[in-house]
Amino acid sequence: MEKVxxxxxxxxxxxxxxxxxDPSQRNLEELKNTGIINIxxxxxPTSHLISEYVKNILKTxxxxxxxxxxxNASGVxxxxxxxxxxxxxxxxxxxxxxxxxxxxHKDISDEIxxxxxxxxxxxxxxxLPPRRSAVARVxxxxxxxxxxxxxxxxxxxxxxxxxxxGFYVRKYVHDIGQKLKIGAHxxxxxxxxxxxxxFENNQYLKIFDEENSISLFELAKIADDEDKLKKVILPAxxxxxxxxxxxxxxxxxxxxxxxxxxxxxxxxxxxxxxKKDELVAIFSLKNxxxxxxxxxxxxxxxxxxxxxxxxxxxxxxxEKGIYPKLV
Length: 327
Description:
CATH class of the largest domain: Alpha Beta
Radius of gyration: 22 Å
Number of strands: 17
Number of helices: 8
Strand content: 35-45%
Largest sheet: 10 strands, mixed
Oligomer: single chain
Order of helices and strands: EHEHEEEHEEEHEEHHEEHEEEEHE
Number of domains: 3
Structural class: alpha+beta
């Protein structure tokens, strides 16, 4: 992804240290209330069960998972904790990276397989969802951004794929077998990251990956160790590189927590590239997520306008009372 650029409405970004705090300064209870933990799911349980296990281990009130993994699949499964469950819309339609083993029913030359997987069966792929899927069984298009054959051992093929949300890798493998007229099925599947593919720059931004994940077994072992838990629960703010941001004055925050939209007068700076009707996040000058909603103006309009609504708030993240009414 390109370097973030900002447009400034005012260069006065003073903030009152009595109210709020940088996410890096949150204590364990605050992290449990507003954080996200990236679980390395093992095969067997459903994604919903993993979410419930995390809730019970950490003793939180609520939990929810980002993306769904088949019970037979393993890998990255981020869990939203308590208030961070409000942020689910910000993580919808994220792209996924998988490593899998495709078993061919008949052998085929490495050259033909590689040419087909890496150059032909890529781009927008039409899929009919499996019978057991939770969505309607109608033909739909989903993108395969990258696909690579990593290794071939007889009829077993180790492959890597980066694809759009809602893409069925199991069906993809089956369809490859059908197209090659040799038959194939998915033997193993592991999700190694969740992120966002940048079409313009042909780059994939990893948001959650194996490196910042923890297994349920490891989580249970450190459940009573405050210092270790603080290292594995990520502040939600750290997980939003794919969402454009608007920073606001301390004086604007109180009204936003009451449900008011963000007016241009409350803005200090906006991320370059914001378009009208885009989902954007509203941040404090201490890097706290305040709320998110739909932009009613482009970035340039937010900077130049003297009045008007810049962002129509959808959901408030920060708790009421952290920032009082300020003048």
